[in-house]
Amino acid sequence: MTVFDSVLADLNERHRDEVLAAFAALEHGREPVPEAQLLALRDATVRRDLQRLLYRLGRTLVRVGGTHWTSGFRDDVMAALAAEGATAQSRIDRAVLVLVLVHSVAIPRSQGLVSGDSWTSAHPTSVDELTRYTQLPRGEIRPALQRLRAAGLVQIAPPRGRSASVDGPAYLPGPALHRLTKPARERLEHELILAAAPDSPLAAAIRARRPAAPATTSTTPEGNEDT
């Protein structure tokens, strides 16, 4: 018996189809899915069955904003992968991603231009800006951006008030970052603060809290999805 069979066996045909349709949309869609589009997202009972299926596969529901959903790795699965040193991105790719997040989200947020804890931003950063504030070779930044874009971790946006033919494309965080659970988003935000302002009071507070931080917990299959 497959994971799908064990979760879906007790559902009627309609609910089984709804769960499978939502599963496919969440797992394979590039952008978060509006809950109004699918019964398994807007109906709490069917959503619990969807959550059970995702849980068995190491995944979990992630709410984006108030009305959209996507799926991502459970926190306990991410912790296990991190402990094993597993990563899909190289050191260069991770460094370039951090630069994009710092310039397009962290700095605008510190200036009051970006609110909330999402990665949505209207403040793209150009390759010139990325090159200016890093010691990475310029020749490695563009290939890294291409790989990050293919993975959905960054996306192209129109340059800010400049000609694309002169400065080339500018970059924003990509839709794959919406797949982070709330604890994962908070951890990434803390890493950005430590990288961008290591001597700030906020960075000191983050470091002080870390030894006493509780162990990462998993999302339960009963429907306690990220909010």
What tags apply to this protein structure?
227 residues; mainly alpha; Arc Repressor Mutant, subunit A; 2 domains; three-stranded antiparallel β-sheet; 6 strands; elongated
Strand and helix layout:
Blueprint: H1 3-8, H2 13-28, E1 33-34, H3 39-42, H4 44-56, E2 59-64, E3 68-73, H5 75-83, H6 91-110, E4 125-126, H7 127-132, H8 138-150, E5 154-157, H9 164-167, E6 170-173, H10 182-196, H11 201-209
Antiparallel strand pairs: 1-3, 2-3, 4-6, 5-6
Can you walk through the features of this model?
- The chain is mainly α and 227 residues long.
- It has 2 domains: 3-81, Orthogonal Bundle (Arc Repressor Mutant, subunit A); 91-211, Arc Repressor Mutant, subunit A, CATH 1.10.10.
- It has helices at residues 3-8, 13-28, 39-42, 44-56, 75-83, 91-110, 127-132, 138-150, 164-167, 182-196, 201-209, and strands at 33-34, 59-64, 68-73, 125-126, 154-157, 170-173.
- Strand 2 (59-64) and strand 3 (68-73) form a beta hairpin.
- Helix 6 (91-110) packs across helix 8 (138-150) and helix 6 crosses helix 10 (182-196).
- The model has no long low-confidence stretch (mean pLDDT 83).
